[in-house]
Sequence to fold (269 residues):
Amino acid sequence: MAFFEVEKEKGVATLWLNNPENHNLMRWEFWEELPKHIKQLEQEKDVNCIRIAGKGDAFSAGLDILDVFQKKKEISLQANAEERLELYETIVLMQNAINCVYECTKPVVAAIHGYCIGGGLDLISACDIRVASKTAIFSLREVRVAIVADMGSLQRLPAIIGEGITRDLALTGRDFNAEEALRIGLITHLYETDDQLFDQSFKFCLKIAKNSAFVTKGVKHVLNKQRDMTLSDSLNYVLLYNSAFLHSKDLQKTVERFEKLMKKSTKNK
Fold:
């Protein structure tokens, strides 16, 4: 059975995690299907923003360890070189699935309710914007199940919430609620109920989708690129970017609209 369900409306594509009977645990199909859906939605011109959300009572309770590591030999102390290589390749595939979200050229918004644990936190850390309801419970849980988090949270969270808080969450594996997530900057909007979350997050995505797709792509590209740059290098990069790409039809329409407004304003004086 397919792991995801896709809905498209008014320029917004919602990618639903659809394993509700198991709190959207990320079984093997999740890792195989996620990059395929993201790449497909990137190519669709009628989609300008992607929302990721979970069906049922949770966003995601994380990795389905039993499903992903069915053979178990590759994670045993007696694993041979071939089995360890197989584990290595499995982790690379999973990392690439999450990276695909981060590298998506279109804005990606995570709408979070209920559990968002382990792999769920990895997934939302790769999104551009995160919003949640008050039912959301977060945890960088890997340390509590004897795993060093390896899907991107340790790499991405410091830029989002700061290194000190990341170390706190990564070394304790503690749960934290939506109010704390808002306070530390993991999420930007907090809603009272799940219904409000799904309604308002869609409206929020609509605001993004109504902007020029060419420009939102550029904004995301520059923001991602500058993370490893000095301030001076980042300013120079966006200078060169706009010098090359500023001459767009969308900007021409904006200038023409302002010219009409100015003429109308002058006539009314």
